[in-house]
Specification:
With 220 residues, the protein is α+β, with helices and mostly antiparallel strands. The protein has four helices and 14 strands. Strand 2 and strand 3 (94-104) form a beta hairpin. The chain starts with a helix and ends with a strand.
């Protein structure tokens, strides 16, 4: 039985080698010949047609570029990526500066001693610089006292005003949102703010001096 099995395996191996050899030599021969198997068509590149398609594609790209140029501001604007916490400052198509930033921590909080709910996130979309101010003083909102477990003071109370927290400059975007500096530089590049966009001192100075009132802020 063992001998018969070995003979069978030897014949099978020879058959496989022969079949493989036929395929190895037959395929190149068929490729080089003009013979076409039934049901199999040969595809040839039409250089003229390819060139026509390329020209048509170039025209479409040019049209899209013209549309894109119309949407690109000619003055300074800033793009903020809230996922990577990275900003890009442009003037027209020229990149002026880019770097790390910090944006909203995306938390929804309700304090036991307050019926109001606070959502700490950076809104996405297009905003505008409404005003600019050097050496800003932070007017602390109610949530700042609630987070610290302190009673909420009345409007205009001296405890609401704090110097230095916002850095050397602030750019007001509206609805309580700003671009400003921070004393918590070790957290730069993280989602840790209550919705504002924080920048490092050097980056903030360039952004402040480059951006104008009315400049667009693209946030995504």
């Amino acid at each position: 039985m063992v001998r018969t099995f070995l003979i069978y395996m030897a014949l099978l191996l020879v058959g496989i080698i022969f079949f493989a050899s036929m395929i190895l030599f037959a395929i190149p021969a068929l490729q080089e010949s003009a013979f076409v198997l039934p049901g199999v068509s040969q595809t040839r590149t039409d250089d003229g047609n390819a060139e026509s398609q390329r020209v048509s594609l170039d025209k479409e790209v040019q049209k899209l570029q013209v549309k894109l140029d119309k949407f690109t501001p000619t003055n300074a604007y800033i793009i903020v990526n809230t996922s990577d916490n990275h900003f890009f400052l442009y003037k027209g198509k020229q990149l002026i500066r880019d770097g790390k930033c910090s944006t909203g921590k995306n938390e929804r909080l309700t304090f036991s001693n307050s019926k109001k709910e606070y959502v700490f996130h950076t809104p996405q979309g297009v905003m505008h610089v409404q005003s600019k101010q050097p050496d800003p003083v932070w007017t602390k909102p109610d949530w700042a006292f609630l987070e610290d477990g302190l009673p909420i003071p009345p409007p205009g109370d001296a405890s609401r005003y704090e110097k230095g927290t916002l850095g050397k400059y602030k750019l007001v975007l509206g609805d309580g949102y700003m671009i400003h500096g921070t004393i918590y530089k070790r957290f730069m590049g993280q989602n840790v703010t209550h919705g504002c966009i924080r920048l490092l001192d050097d980056d903030l100075e360039v952004v402040y001096k480059t951006m104008e009132v009315g400049s667009k802020v693209y946030i995504y």
